[in-house]
Specification:
It is a single chain. The chain is an all-alpha fold. It contains 45 helices and no strands. Helix 21 runs antiparallel to helix 22, helix 23 packs antiparallel against helix 24 and helix 41 packs antiparallel against helix 42. The chain starts with 7 loop residues before the first helix and ends with a helix. The relative contact order is 0.03.
Length: about 1000
Amino acid sequence: MFDEVIDAGTFHAAAERVRAEPYGTTRCAQAEALLAAAERVGDTALVGHALVGTIVAYNYGGESPKSAVSMGRLLRLFDTEPASFDEGLTHYVFWYLKWVTSSLLSVPEVPLATIRRFLDDLERRYRTAGHSMRPVHKCRFYLYDHTGDKAGAAREFEAWLAADRDALTDCDACERREQGRWLTQQHDDERALEIFGPTLSGARSCAEEPQITLSDSLIPLVRLGRLDEARANHLRGYRMVRGRAGMHDIVGRHIEFCALTGNEGRGVEIVAEHRMWLSDGSGSAMDRLEFLGGVVVLLRRLVTLGRGDLPVAPLPGTDGTAAGVLAVLDREVAVLATRFDERNGSDFVGATLRERLDREPLAVSLPLGVRSALTAAPATRIAATPPPAVPLDELLADARALDAVGHPRAHLVWEQYARAVEDRGVQPPDRAVAELALSRALVLLSRGETGAATSGFRAAAEAFDRADLPGKAAVARSRAIVAALHPDTPRIPGPATAPDLDAVTDDVTGLVEAGRATDEDLATVLTVRAAARMRMLTSSAPEDPDAGPESGDDAHAARRTAEVEVDRLAEAAERLALPARQADAAEARAHFALLDGDHAAAIRHLRSVVDLCHAAGRPWQAVQPGRVLGSLLLHQGDWAGAELAYLAVHDAARDSMDSPEDYAEVLVGLANSTAPTRPDSARDYAVRAAHEFDRLGDRAGAAYARRGLAELLHNAGRAADAVAVLEESLPDIAEFLGQEAAWLARRRLAAGLTVLGDGFEAADVLAALARDTARDGAPETHAEIAAEAALALARTGRGDAADRAFAAAVEAMRPLDRPGTVIRLLRAAGWNLVENRVPAPGAGTDVGTYTGTAAVDRGLAYFAEAAALLDAATADGPDLDRALERADTEAEWTEALWTAGRNDAALALADRAVARLEITLPRFQDRYTAIVTIAARIEHADLDMPALAIARIDAALAICRMAKADTATAKLTRLRDHFTS
């Protein structure tokens, strides 16, 4: 390898290629091979540079213990052949000496005496060379801190901060990181985060930052209750270190954060992504201890939660479960800590590890916005067997109390009661038998088991008769009659249904008058009647095509009959002051309004439903109508009203045990309703919604919530968070929300990556998306994405790929009657070939490299084609402002000709363009100024004809002053002054 290295030039070219490699095993091997090549050349300076290259590769590539050997060799060369070390290489010697000195602490096999000798040598060399002692104090601080000498650490910490900064001082971001870590150890979280602030905000950065400080900030932020910042820093930071060599300890901190914030599922996923690290001991012992320590925190948490059987990652000697892996890693981290403590002569590393492993969770649940649940959360159930101390009469009273208000958990308590009766060998009273039968029949009906439900209702009616409760029996018989009307079994009652229900209604009315039934019994029967008629309106027709819904009534008559039943229920419920039944009637009327498309009436009735449910002490009954109400208000753009609607049912949905999915949907509604006015609140709701869907195992719902969350994050300028959410959500978005949604999410991902400066990755995302939409997408969608891909490829300097992409984008755009877009694409394609220069969004001009005569000719031809399209255009349109595009095209074409060295053609085009633009001033004064400036520069510098250039500027100034083009006048005046100074 590197056989071509024969002198300094070839060495430095090879070194540049090595530096372009990502850190890791490959780069370490290449750095070693380059060192061998330098030794073969026999140039001491080149060997020195190669040794520095190995130190850097080892440090960032997970092989830092090797750096001490390279440093030793470098120092021997420096001491024996100082003349071979120029100023730059000498600086490297001192710079990396402090690195290696501090890194020795991470290798327990290196005795403290050796490390102290390195420190003394570091101080001697720095003093002799006249450098600041700041790095020396910092390295001594590391030693005291590592060994648990807090007094010594505090002393060196203060000396470190007091010493002057100079060229050998670590960058401000790195120094702030170490200062903040020390303050965090002292539990001074506020000051630590203040120190971290400039790095977290992006004001300070380097090769190691902000990714390390992002991880260091997590625990302090959670301890201070700044959960949104903690969430954001995890999403942003983990993405920056995932899978990166030399970042084992940082990944471990992210795993620990997940374990301590109720995101054990997320932690398991991170461990799975880094499963090879579990058995890879090639890095430093301290980095391994830090990584495995975070993993052990997670595994202990899983075992505590009763999830020791959860598969985590394959590890030799284990079954791969949390408990199995924990047994091995628990021993390994203890051994690692012991090795350091034995070397250090203290128990500080072990004590610190034990404190870390014993730390209690910092937050019960901190939703992150990405998948974090272990599994779908099982629904909570009341214990089947009650404690023996609970008397049966208390259980019975509880069941009846919940029944009386229609509580969705009433059936669970009835089952508790039934099990208790069975266990104690007691014969329940007839009324209790009837009530239990009715409860079980209602559960069967809710499951769509109408045959069993009908039998259950009949059995309940017979038991109520035996208990001498004829009103309750009548209710049970009414339910039996219409049991087949359950929504999951769309069957219409036959002609006998109406008279059967009439008979039951007459019976219960008479019983109420006789005092043998309650008002609630009558209202329940009326509710059942209304429900039957409502069901007839929304179900399919009878099997007999000649039979009408009721006695040959047409659809209008059936609707009127249903309305009469609802009116009868409403009148009785109001007269009897039964708000829960009034709510039933109002909900039916809202349904009528929705069938008619009368949203205003539906909203009015649904608001009444919610209010009545709360008045009746049945907030759970308001959840579904409240959700519909919120949806209608969202559709009308009433964000505030929608938010109030969802808030009105939020608590009931949260506490629901029968329909936990309602809570997630309510959170989605709140996110949608607050997004236009309070995006911060919307993001919080979207994060919580995704978390709830995860708990339920609803991947489709979670994908929907995360897609909205990513949009909110992007719009808030939190591109790193948005990208992290989208990268992890794209597979589910594609699977559950469809192709179009996935394409939109990929475009948003590319936009976020561009904002983050990951232009190459963004271009790759768009190029792949362009290929997919070419195959399956609508023409306009494909054309737009193809254009974005071409521009992105050009911005990354990939001229050939961009040229092909521009050609495809232009051809895709031509049939869409968007000539303005085609013209702009042709100009961009021209720049790609002339100079591979495409302006980045919101940035200045990024000049690439010249691409050769043939490519330049083709690039200039694109400008000519754009001009020809303008010549052919006969009118403006939605996509085309001819005057604007003409001005832009001629200004850019003139500049492209000048850039390509075609000065004569540039001057000729400039003269034509200026003549055209003069009559438009001051509208296009910026383009006018640009063209005049280019022409004047050609004449002044390239042709060495300054008089012509000044004359051109003077003529342009006269025209600008007449046209009151003040901006152009000012710019051209400055240009003239520059030429004449």
